[in-house]
Specification:
- The chain has 553 residues and is mainly alpha-helical.
- The chain contains 21 helices and 6 strands.
- Strands 1-2 form a two-stranded antiparallel sheet.
- Helix 6 crosses helix 9.
- It starts with 5 loop residues before the first helix and ends with a helix.
Length: 553
Amino acid sequence: ISEYVSDVKALLNENLKTLDYFEKRTSRIEISHDGDLERVFFKTPHVCANITERSKENLLWTVDRSGPGKKVEHFLEFAGDLEAEMYHQESLSKHKYFSHLISYDFDRWGTQIAFWLAIIINIVLFFHYTIDEDDGLRQVISERNQGCDSESINSTISCPEIDLDTYQAYLPLGWYIFVIFCGLILTLIELARFIFFISQFAKLILRKSFNDFFGQTKFDFNDFLGQTKLITAKNYLFAAYFLMSDQKFMMTLLMFVFSFLGLCVHPLFFCINLLNTIEMSIDLRNVLRAVTLNGKSLLITAVFGVMVVYLFAIWAFVSFRSHYVSDGEFLCLNLFQCTITTLSGGLRKGDVGEILEDTEWGNSSFIFFQLMFFALVITVLLNIIFGIIIDTFGELRQIKANTEEDMQNKCFVCSIDRYTFDRNTEGFIHHIKNEHNMWQYVNFFVYLNRKNSNDYTGSESYVKSLIDKNDASWFPVNQAMKLTEHLAKQEEAQTTLIATVTGNAMKIADLEKKVEKVLGFTQSHLDMLASIAEENDNNNSTNQSGMVVIGHI
């Protein structure tokens, strides 16, 4: 109010603490009420302070930005989930330890510590995990080297092979203790991250998943705030499925499981914890999404490719079994073996002919078989799969660039560009922070749900009725009051200018008429003076002639 009433602003400036108090506890938004813009001021619900940065970031990057209307509609759908999270976070904040973990962003720095511990452990394993050469291995190697002199190597006698798989690999005791110590810390951190994630997000994931699966009215809102029992015998399997479908849940669970296996079973399991780097890099997540986003298309194409390879295997089993020989071993004794050989060897080598015996020049049918396999499987099918992945990655990169462009240069609420606000108002940043702050629209959503419907104002009743119908037409899309006021001032200034110009033109016209009258009056007087001067000249001429005549006489 102080921005529009100077007396209120002057009064509040005298007491900055009062101004600061109301600024922190008051929100304002603009709504479109039957096409007319209105400002709405309301008290910010205290629960709105519990929204997490993770959820804000998730909304900004996942909301549908294909159009201004789509954006606010999707945003309105998100608002219910954000409200549920606020209440859930508030309930967690009542617990001392969870409140500290939330305030210090435990998940982010916990992930970083776990990743660097995994780096340290794997560096130790990389340089110090080795085969125990004291377990008779040195003697066996020495005896083999003595028996395999140059003469025996060049003869038909082959050197005895050493089966290294029978020798135990080990880690020196000192480094083993160090790895176990770091692994214990890593496991405890991963366990804490898993418990923290379950406590903070599991109910929210289940709430959204159950509502999306069964419909908005299937489960009561309080069921997801811990006030009643969430998981019952009826929906236990659904809850497990929904949790397992969440990427973050599975990643956190797998990190804990493999760190535990590394601590209790074998240190090499700690290598999986290096994958925490995926959680730390948006670019890596986009690379994985390029493979998983169109997973159905990739799976269907891969299954079709296996079918094509199976057809080639049948062709080979019927006509070219004798060619499936490697190092004297037959690789096509039955259809199953022939299919596996064609699939594995053909894909790994890039050509099924590379794993088979050399083909005689006269066997044109087998040459045709190899060429067809290379053309259809290697050239066409594999490139289709690679093309799907590359196109998806390019699409994700373009979506990311468009999203960044939209976030940086357009208001989320009204979708008007930065240049318009910078040119005509106090600036784009001021607009998105004070006039169309998207998070204050979430606050208004929560405010309406908390307020008694009998106490609604006219504007609040109007907005609430539209929200209940999932109608986002109350958002001021392509509208802003400051711009409207600026345009009104411009129109007023233009009207004033036109009126001024018109008045001046009329004055000039009147002046022209007066000047014409003055010119006419002046011209008449000039004509009169001219006639008088002419009469005087005539009289003078007459007088002079009379005097001449008198002189002659």
